[in-house]
Design a protein that fits this description.
Strand order of the largest sheet: 1-2
Shape: globular
Radius of gyration: 19 Å
Number of strands: 4
Strand content: 5-15%
Structural class: mainly alpha
Helix content: 55-70%
C-alpha cells in the first residue's frame, strides 16, 4: 500500500509530505537491528515504572508497546519486542525490578511478556493500514484494543496453568482493566503529537531556500 501524501507549498515551490510518519522505519533489513535495539531499550525503561502487585505487577510496559506499534513499521515493532524478550531470556535486567533470566520466563508474568510480540504486530499492522485515512484515529484505537486483548489472553492463559483460571482472571486481568482506557488515550496522544512534530520537521527540511 502506497504512502498517502499531501502537497504543501513553500516559497516558490511545493513538496510532497506524508500525512503520517512512523518514528522507527527501517528502509532496509540492515537498519532493523539497530532500531529494534532502540525499541527494546524503551520497553526496558518502561518496565521499571512499576506498582508491585502479585502475581503480575502493574508497569508501563503496555503503554510503551502501544506507542511502538503506532509509530513503528510492523517489522520494527515486532523486532523490538522480540529483542526485548530475548534480552530478558538471556538474563539481562530488562524486566520489571531490573530482573531477567529463566526464573522470570517460567514465572507468572511470562505469558504477558511473550504477548507483547503479537500485541505490537497487531497494533502496527492496523496503524499502517489506517495511516493517513479519515478513520485513522478510530482504526488506531481499534488496533490497540485488539492487540491488548491478545496480550491479556496470552498472559492469563499461561498464568492459569500456575494458579487456575479463576484466580488468573481475578489477579491477572481485572486489576488492569480500569487503567486501560487511560493508556489507550495516552498512546494516541503521544503518537499524534509525534506525527505533528515529524511533519513540521520534514516541512522545514524540505522548504526551498529563499533566493
Amino acid at each position: 500500500m502506497g504512502q498517502t501524501t499531501k502537497q504543501q507549498t513553500a516559497g516558490s515551490g511545493s513538496v510532497s509530505l506524508p500525512v503520517a510518519l512512523p518514528l522507527f522505519h527501517a528502509q532496509t533489513w540492515f537498519q532493523t537491528p539497530a532500531l529494534a535495539l532502540g525499541g527494546s531499550l524503551v520497553l526496558a525503561a518502561s518496565a521499571q515504572v512499576e506498582v508491585p502487585l502479585w502475581p503480575v505487577p502493574f508497569t508501563m510496559h503496555t503503554l510503551a508497546v502501544m506507542v511502538l506499534g503506532l509509530v513503528c513499521s510492523p517489522r520494527v515493532a515486532v523486532a523490538a519486542t522480540i529483542a526485548y524478550v530475548l534480552e530478558g531470556c538471556v538474563g539481562l535486567p530488562v524486566f520489571s525490578g531490573f530482573s531477567g533470566g529463566a526464573r522470570i520466563m517460567l514465572g507468572p508474568t511470562s505469558g504477558y511478556i511473550v504477548g507483547f510480540i503479537p500485541q505490537a504486530l497487531i497494533i502496527a499492522l492496523v496503524a499502517q493500514a489506517c495511516r493517513g485515512r479519515q478513520y485513522e484515529l478510530f482504526g488506531q484505537a481499534a488496533g490497540i484494543v485488539v492487540g491488548q486483548a491478545v496480550q491479556y489472553a496470552c498472559g492469563v492463559a499461561l498464568l492459569s496453568g500456575l494458579i487456575g483460571v479463576q484466580a488468573a482472571v481475578t489477579t491477572g486481568l481485572l486489576p488492569f482493566l480500569p487503567t486501560f482506557p487511560i493508556k489507550l488515550a495516552l498512546a494516541l496522544m503521544i503518537a499524534r503529537g509525534y506525527g505533528a512534530w515529524a511533519r513540521r520537521s520534514l516541512a522545514s527540511s524540505t522548504r526551498p531556500a529563499a533566493a
